[in-house]
Structures are given as structure tokens and as C-alpha cells.
Amino acid sequence: MTINAPTAPAQAGTSHDALAKWVDEVAELTTPDRVIWVDGSPEEWRDVTDALVNAGTFTRLDETKQPDSFRAASDPSDVARVEACTYICSREEKDSGPTNNWMDPDEMKGILTQLFRGSMAGRTMYVIPFVMGHLDAEHPMFGVEITDSEYVVASMRIMARIGAPVLAKMEELQADFVPALHSVGAPLQPGEQDVPWPCNDTKYIVHFPEERMIWSYGSGYGGNALLGKKCYALRIASAVAHDEGWMAEHMLILKLTSPQGKAHYIAAAFPSACGKTNLAMLQPTIPGWKAETLGDDIAWMRFGKDGRLYAVNPEYGFFGVAPGTNQRTNPNAMATLKGGHSIYTNVALTDDGDVWWEGLENEPAHATSWKGADWTPDSTEPAAHPNSRYCTPITQCPILADEYDDPQGVPISAILFGGRRKTTIPLVTEARDWAHGTFMGATLSSETTAAAVGKTGIVRRDPMAMLPFIGYNAGDYLGHWIDIGKQSDASLLPRIYYVNWFRRDDDGGFLWPGFGENSRVLKWIVERIEGTADARETPIGHVPTPEALDVDGLDLTTEQIAEALAVNSKEWQAEIPQIQEWFTKFGDQLPTELQVELDTLTTRLGDC
Ligand code: GDP
Ligand code: PGA
Ligand code: MN
Ligand code: MN
């Protein structure tokens, strides 16, 4: 294969020496036709989206229904995160740990260098300076993504703070940054016609935690390609946080104000496609309570001078699961999307230039499915992929909390863990203390979803909903959680809860209505924190007494509520060997505190 040399030098240079050097090196390796520095201007958005429309990647949606918004359909093979191709390449294998894929960093760089050689031929190489979190944070967290995908450029503009102001600050500080290199891995021969969604069957999503560096090859899907999100703000940031004594977590951040006007900030970790975006934007069904959003996927938490944990959302947009989103389940997401400037991927396209997905109102009589096929309500295949997504600016969210703009973040009163479990896990359980809460997080389990490639519905342990995102040894990560709990007074730490919106009755239906009704559970949590709500002590922690949970106006029988809250000792006894087996994975790396918690639980269950 003949490789084109870059025909034009970079459009704009930079006075950031290390960045200039890296951009030159990458251009030499990947041989793009041209290099463009992404500045974040409105003209650039127009140019990039026009280019995507011309390439057939984007369909421009009807301006009155979806202003300045686009629909993309991916290659059918490139629809989710690829955990099997995701690596943590620490120098020592033990630092990657029992839950991550590992390869020697030099060996991996050898493989990737071969793959990236000439990989941008015939394409444009974009340089995207970005910052995760606030530009005026005490220590702004810079990154630069180099990509050959216009789809990535358009999406990164929504999901992160990017462009000229970021580059100017980086230059002023000659700041360190995370180099994040991405290619779809589809070079074009001269004259070769491009496809709407270029990608490669060979995929590598690779992190070098000690070097704070990311290389991603072969996929255009959000979680694999928008490198500020999972790769930087979770995997790399968790390794940085471990070194520096803070936390990078897969958590939404929510502000809840009681009828008395008292505000509490709540963070919650659920695995992908288990309800973070919905809870982050919930519309309370109980009178007088108000919810506001700060973030729907990632929280960075540090101790403040007052000894409390403060959280910021490092992102600038929402990358939400489309199916199931509608006016009833998530009216605030719908309102955010109404603001326009959004990208929909792998949803159906209606004949009048709108989008549709399973669960949305106004089912069309005919549409084009995410696979490009004719779709009608009689079709056996879904119109939208189960992991189809919307990408939309957070600033358009009607209930965005003012504190979102505060680089100090908000003090967290409660941390929730949750997952999808048909059985065993009650609607809500309160941990006795931080170590017990860490045990709840460490043993969190959930049925797998379409957010990652692979079989769905399989129960797996997903510690703190971070299984696919821990950038170092998971045993050390659990130890870090235990250590965090020792850094402050117990009374200042967030209280920890385990929730399950997905428990089923004997007929397979959800026992709990969920969505806005989850405000009832949040109310109990706030009242627990304020010392006004009752709880029953059980072997697994404190659960609400039936009277303590506000079920006013809820269409549920007393039996149904009792079933949702039930602690069934038979089910829990079956859980013990599974937890023991899970803990065995960690060997010596398992914090002793967690084994003690398991022994305590076993004893308590034996006593009841
Ligand atoms: P995220 O990926 O963690 O942000 O999860 P989402 O909030 O996007 O939700 C993923 C899927 O779970 C969507 O199809 C939602 O409709 C569904 N979901 C979210 N919250 C609830 C809930 O409280 N109850 C039930 N039954 N489903 C929910
Ligand atoms: P989610 O984000 O957690 O909102 O699903 C994307 C992902 O985790 O892949
Ligand atoms: Mn996520
Ligand atoms: Mn989400």
C-alpha cells in the first residue's frame, strides 16, 4: 500500500511545545491529508456537520422538530463499548489487576504503532484541545484528542469543554495534558469512496495509566472514541485519583431540595444502562420536593477543607440511552433535546425527518430502522438499537443546578449504589457505616445490558459500577475506598445506600414503578440523614419500615411494597458463596475490612 505524506502542514501552530511535538509525530505516523485544529467556533460546527451530512453519516433532521440536530447510523458491528478489546497497560501486570485486560506496554505500543501507521491516509486529522471539569479549576485537567473522525469532533464539542479557550490556557500554563489518540482505522486510497461509518474489525481501546496516555483504534462508538469520557474521566482519572487521594467515579450528581427548603446533594453509581441519566433528571412525584441535575455519568470527588466530599461533573453534555426515554420517564431529557444541537445515533428515522425509538410516544406507522431497513409496528426487529444514544448539551437541561458552574463542586450527603437485579436486593438498604457501604459497592451486582458488546441479562459483579472503568488493580481500588473513609470524620462522610429499581414479582413485572416515583426513596434517604425516618435493622443493613416510606397516592398494595422491601434470608444465603467466590479473585489485594464485612454478614444471616 502506498502511503500519502501529509500534503499540508498544520493550519495553526501552537506555542505549547510538547503539544506541537506530539501533533507532528502523530501526523508523521498516521499520514493524514491535512491537519485541523478544532477551535469550538459556530462556523466549525456548521462545517463539520455539513461534511457529515455530505458523507452520509448524518441525516439533518426536520428543523422545526429537532433544530440543528442530526441522526447517525453506525456500522452494525460498532454499537457499544468493547470490553474484550479494552486494555490497561500498566508496566507491571499486577497493577492492572484481576479484572482488566493487560499487555506489556512496549508490546502494545508495537502493535498499535503498526496499526496507526498510515491509518489516517486520505482523511483529515483533527486536534481537539479539551478540559474535563472547569477551565478555571485549581488544577484544570487537560487533554488533547487527535482523531480522524468528524463524528468524534462533533460529539466531543457537545460532551466536553473544548477549543480555543482551552488551548490558550494550556499554552499559558505550558500545562501537562493527557494525549488521547484515536483513529477509526480506515485509511482511504486516492479516489476511494468513503463509507458512512468507517471503522475496523480490529479494535483496541488502550490506556497507559503511568504515562496518562490513551490510544484508541478501530471504533467510532462514543464510549470507545470520545476519549474524554470513559477513557480519561474514569480510567485514567481513577489512576490519578488513586495516586493523589481523590475519587473518579461512575456516578450521577443530583441536588434534592425538601419542602422545607433544605438542599442535599446525592451521588449514585449504577452500571451502564441501569438508570443514572433518569435519576439525575428525575421529576419528583411527591409534593414540595425539587430535583436539579449536576451530572448524569461521572463524578470527581475530593475532600474540602471542611472534611466533606465535594463532587464535580467533568463533562459538558449527556450521552444518554434513547430507548425508554419519553415524557413520562424522563421529561427533562426530552426538554433538553428540544433545545436542539443534538446528535442521535442508531435510533430510527421517521418519514417526516424526526427520530423515534422503542418507548417514545407517537409510534410511527413507518420508519427507517437503525439498520436502514423499512420498519413498521409489525416488524420483528427493533426500530432503534437497544444501546442507541442521544448526545446533547448539558446547558440545555431545564433543571441544571446553578452549582454546575462551581469548580469547587457540591458537598455530597449520600452515595447510592444500584443495579439491575430481579431478586434478592431490596428497594433500598442503608449501610451501617462507610466500611459496610464499601462492602455494598464492592459486591454490587447487575444484569448485563446492551451498553457493552456481549450477552445481556447475565448477573455479574460490578464493583461501584466501575468494573469496565477502573484504570488500575481493582483490589487496590477497593482499598482506596476503605482509605478514603479513614480520611475524614465519620459524621462528615456521605451515608451509603444500596437501591434496586428492578426487582420483579412472580409474573416478571417490576415491583416498583421507578422513574419519578424513585423520589420516594430519595425522600426516605434524606430523612434518614436528618434523623427523622424510621428503619428496621436487618442482617444486610437498615431498610425502611413500611410506614417510613412515603407511598401516598401510589397505586401499590401493602403486599407489593413489602415484597419490594423484603430481605429474604434464603436469597441472601445463596448470595454468600457468590460473594466469597468474587472476593477470591482479589487474593491478597482484598482489603481485610471487606472480608470482615462478609464474615459479619454470614454470621448475621445465620442468626436469623
Ligand atoms: P444510564 O445508562 O445508567 O444512564 O441509564 P438510563 O437512565 O439511561 O436508563 C437505562 C434504561 O433503564 C432506560 O431504558 C430506562 O428507561 C430504564 N430505567 C431507568 N430508570 C428506571 C427505573 O427507575 N425503573 C425501570 N424499570 N427502568 C428504569
Ligand atoms: P451510561 O454511559 O452509563 O449512561 O450508559 C455510557 C457507558 O457507560 O457506556
Ligand atoms: Mn456510563
Ligand atoms: Mn446515562
What is the element layout, followed by pairings?
Elements: H1 17-30, E1 34-37, H2 42-54, E2 58-60, E3 70-72, E4 86-88, H3 105-116, E5 124-132, E6 141-147, H4 150-159, E7 161-162, H5 164-173, E8 178-183, E9 204-208, E10 213-217, H6 222-225, H7 228-244, E11 247-249, E12 251-257, E13 263-269, H8 276-280, E14 290-295, E15 299-303, E16 309-312, E17 317-321, H9 331-338, E18 343-345, E19 348-350, E20 355-356, E21 367-368, E22 374-375, E23 389-393, E24 410-418, E25 428-430, H10 434-442, E26 445-447, E27 459-461, H11 474-486, E28 495-499, H12 519-529, E29 535-538, E30 541-544, H13 558-565, H14 569-584, H15 592-607
Parallel strand pairs: 1-5, 3-18, 4-9, 6-8, 8-10, 13-24, 24-28
Antiparallel strand pairs: 2-3, 5-6, 5-7, 9-10, 11-15, 12-13, 12-14, 15-16, 16-24, 17-23, 18-23, 19-20, 19-21, 21-22, 25-28, 26-27, 29-30
Helix pairs in contact: 2-4, 10-11, 10-15, 14-15
Bound molecules: guanosine-5'-diphosphate, 2-phosphoglycolic acid (PGA) and manganese (II) ion (2 copies).
What features would you describe in this structure?
With 608 residues, the chain is an alpha+beta fold. It folds into 3 domains: 2-59 and 78-245, Phosphoenolpyruvate Carboxykinase, domain 1 (3-Layer(aba) Sandwich), CATH 3.40.449.10; 248-315 and 401-607, Phosphoenolpyruvate Carboxykinase, domain 3 (Alpha-Beta Complex), CATH 3.90.228.20; 318-396, Phosphoenolpyruvate Carboxykinase, domain 2. The protein has 15 helices and 30 strands. Strands 11, 12, 13, 14, 15, 16, 24, 25 and 28 form a 9-stranded mixed beta sheet that branches. Helix 2 (42-54) packs antiparallel against helix 4 (150-159) and helix 10 packs across helix 15 (592-607). The protein is globular and about 75 Å long. Bound molecules: guanosine-5'-diphosphate, 2-phosphoglycolic acid and manganese (II) ion (2 copies). Guanosine-5'-diphosphate binds next to helix 8 and strand 17.
